[in-house]
Amino acid sequence: MMQWRRMEAVVLLVLLGQLASALDVPLDLSQPPTITHQSPKDYIIDPRESIVIHCEAKGNPHPSFLWTRNGTHFDTDEDPNVTMKPHSGTLVVDISREKAEHYEAVYQCTARNKHGTAVSNNIVVRQSRSPLWSKERIKPIVVHEGMSLVLPCRPPAGLPPPIIFWMDNNFQKLPQSSRVSQSLNGDLYFSNVLVEDSRNDYICYARFPHTQTIQQKQPITVKVINLDALNDTMAAFYNDTDLFSDDPLEERKPTFLIPSGPSSSKMVLRGQVLELECIAEGLPTPEISWSKRSSVLPVERTSFPHYQKTLRIVNVSQSDEGEYRCTAKNRLGSAQHAIHVTVRAAPYWLAGPPRNLVLAPRENGVLTCRAGGTPKPAITWTVNGVPIENAPKDESRKVEGDSIIFTEVQTDSSAVYQCNVSNDYGYLLSNAFVNVLSESPRVLTPSNKVYQVIKNHQALMDCASFGSPVPKITWFKESRSSTLDGDPYVVHDNGTLGIHVAQVRHSGKYTCVAQNFFGNYENHVYLEVKEPTRILKQPEYKVVQRGRSVVFECRVKHDPSLVPSTTWLKDKEELPEDKRLTVESDSLTIADVTEDDAGVYTCIANTTLDRDSASAELTVVEATPTPAVAYEQPDAPTDLELTDLKKRSVQLTWTPGDEHSSPIQKFLIQYQDSLHHRGHWHNLTEVPGTKTTAHLKLSPYIHYTFRVLALNAVGFSRPSAPSRMYRTEPAAPDENPTGVHGFGTEPDNLVISWKPLSGLQSNGPGLHYRVMWRRKKVESDWTSVTVSNYTQFVVSGTPTFVPYELKVQAINDHGAGPEPDVAHGYSGEDLPLTAPQNVRYEVQNSTLAEVRWDPVPPREMRGILKGYKVYYRREHALHKHNPHHVEEHVLTFSGNRSHGLLPGLRPFSRYAFNVRAFNGRGEGPASSTHRFETPEGVPGAPSFLMVTDPNPDSFTLEWSPPHERNGHVLGYTLKYQPVNNSNEVGPVMEMALAPNETSLTLLNLKYNTRYKFYLNARTGSGEGPAISQEAVIIMDEAVASRQVDIATQGWFIGLMCAIALLILILLIICFIQRNKGGKYPVKEKEDAHTDPEFQPMKEDDCTFGEYSDNEDHKPLKGSRTPSNGTVKRDDSDDSLVDYGEGEDGQFNEDGSFIGQYSGKSVSRDTGEGPERSEAPSPINAMNSLNSFV
């Protein structure tokens, strides 16, 4: 009994260990070192480059690194050629001052911090070698035609071994065949030689892949002679050649060149490549075949390179062990050779290497180091690099074979364990740490991540988490009315929520809650289910004459939120760059079609989530004056005939109709059952288009009539004329009803239902059913009843929710069907008898509580347990200002649960709750009502914040306490700061206010300044959100009011209108005086400017010269002076030129100018008549008005 309990505990520990090992510790938490990258065990280096031996590790604190060389400490600081990369254990060896072989050794890296030590593999560093071929003089080889020949290569031993190939002087590979081939060791074998094999440049090359160098052997000369030339050849080569003096043979049966003898053996390691070789000589050339005794060769892993002379099996397993036989055969005979293959195995992991353990204090776990190998490997454990038997004792640790069991670990149990598995063929070394942590949950999946999936596809939403103990993941959707752990939702072991077939209704916001003993953490993600992308109008088969155009359509329907892209392919490749091809959003156009355009065109509609494609073929035909070939549907088949008539089969033959230039691809055979479904044709089978007969399997009790349709590339033909009717004889049913179920609709009944047989399945008249049932696990006989062609039968008077065994058998007038399978069901359910007991609660925080209960015993459930419902209500808030009110809620927990979370609670409130179990019938009685109070939370924002009574240097703020106080309000915090026009903020002023204050006057503020105010309340749990308001200090409101009042007075408006009218009258008078010319003081201005250099009228253009003063360059009165001191004619108001043009300028008798007062001419040479005059210039008129005023 004790041993059984011990085994049970070990199994439980294994499960816990596997669960804990799935965690990846975030790097900001304390953890032992983990080696993340290291050089391979067998590390071959290039002697021309620096040596880099990798050793990278992570941990917290970051680990330090040490190295051993050939088992002793390697002080890297003492070797000037060796440096260690910063924050890394990687060694860089500069070999510019030292030969590479000086550093050939076995290295091992150690990474350690205060929590443990991790070690790397033993890294054997060797430099690659590509030695030169030894110099030798190779004599020419003379051989008789038909004899065998072996040209040895024997390359120098390199590291790694070289790759061998044979070429000639022109670096062309020598041709090989079943007669001439290269062996695995590089030698060149001739099963028999021909005269054309004679040449003087058989050269063996060795390529050393690590250094990318190629070495070559001295060329070999081969001379093949026949009997007629034998005497001459011997005379020419006798003194300086090797002559194969065996008697030439005409033909001979095969013999093996390699391997020798009747049998041989070979050992290969598991996972490697097995290569067996048999090369035979003979004339004619033998053919090689392979077989395995008492077994077959694994087809997927087997190949026969080198013209069947090599058997190659990759990824060798233990099943490949055995005797293999190669057979060489020609028409004169055969030879065989047996090769006994033994498979050994270096150590390999059976279920992966040991995994890291993250445990909370007093938790249990297990490290497992399970490996296989042949021979069976030995397992040794070390702790922080020290053999476990020499390590400090740990009472929580116990070694049992390939496992280390940890029981009630403590915080000082953190360490790194090394598992070393070895046998004669290799070793495995793996580090796995035990990290003892106490951490509240955290969700590693990014917050508010959006998952998009196509409708009817699988949806997966991550909730990667970490915590110690391992957090439990719970999912909610939108309102959190119930947890998501039933159909269609699946919560995977890693916390991922899956929906097997996503629908649009599944879109929305999802919340995952990670919870352990130390707290909980929420994360929100969003799911968007999109409509699939579909090609509505697919491209169709086209036959086009050369030189014409063709259009392939491709109309796509997609989700409006996705952006599709359409791609066209020709024969599964991208379209060529050709201006004749025009790709639009829903079509492809090919202009001036050529023969090269023929092929299969594929339209691919892509979005970021899915794709759809459709293809069509283009056939290009020659353009001829004769009408193009008409491709039509085939004609209907004719001459249907039934032969070989049997009870369950018949032979149908027919004659195909005209194909209409498109070959028939297949024939579709349909039947009509005149007895059960007259007038309805059903598909029976299809046959290839090359056949005109079909063997049809039939069912009993059917009146068959057949017809045939032909299909070509254009479409289906019309149906053929029906065949004659063939009636099959009735028989007993061949099958029984499917879908047999048992359930109850009342507490005392059992409803047995099934899917009835169709008329085709009945096999005869008089179909009825024998329904049988009996209590399960009770020794009782079957009770049976025969019913007509119904789909269910009700058994009354049954006990409540009792399991039954059920059978339904089909029977007709010709007998009963086969023995039916046993189905299972339950009689009707009733409401649960009792309520959950031992109901208790634990308030987690101000918004979350956990409820626990003891499940209702199964015998009192009286049905299938569907889950538990927690009814809870908020009775009132604990604050005196909040009224009593009740908010009723219910949370459903599906399945056999014993606890649940009540999220979204209101802080500082009193709640009442009870728990009820429910089954398929309904809810059971409620448990006793329990009450709990939630602690204080942070308050809500103040109800309002407003600015009143603004003054030039002060404001009054008024506010109201928060609606949601969530506790005792301890006071308010007011913050305010100035904001300039560019939205740059100034320093923040902060004030603490008493809880009973609801207004405050701020003095000494800056006028004409915008201020921003923030006000929030606080309770014992902290400060709540702030409410903000803005206001601006402006000039004195009274002054502004008076100014506005004056501007809006009637007398002020009237005064402004009178002034405007007076100005308008003065302007009119001025215009009238100017037009009359009587008042223009030209004479006075002439007298004022008595400059002898006054310019008279120019005779060539009939214009007046400008007034000027050459002494001081003063401008005329009323004119504007430019910055350079000159006076421009255009700017002088009194220039005569500005008053008229050309011959229009005239004077009165008194010398005054009588032309109209006009602006400067736009063009001096208009060519118009002398009667033309300009309109008065309002600009000059204004200048005159200014002078007048």
From TrEMBL:
Primary location: membrane
Domain Ig-like: 33-120, 131-221, 254-342, 347-435, 441-530, 532-619
Regions crossing the membrane: 1051-1072
Family annotation (InterPro entries): FN3_dom (IPR003961), FN3_sf (IPR036116), Ig-like_dom (IPR007110), Ig-like_dom_sf (IPR036179), Ig-like_fold (IPR013783), Ig/MHC_CS (IPR003006), Ig_I-set (IPR013098), Ig_sub (IPR003599)
Gene Ontology cellular component annotations, sorted alphabetically: axon; plasma membrane
CDD domains on file: FN3
Subcellular compartments: Cell membrane
Pfam families for the chain: Bravo_FIGEY (PF13882), fn3 (PF00041), I-set (PF07679), Ig_3 (PF13927)
Membrane topology: Single-pass type I membrane protein
Domain of life: Eukaryota
GO molecular function, one term: cell-cell adhesion mediator activity
Signal peptide span: 1-22
Family: Belongs to the immunoglobulin superfamily. L1/neurofascin/NgCAM family.
Protein name: Neuronal cell adhesion molecule-like isoform X7
Organism of provenance: Betta splendens
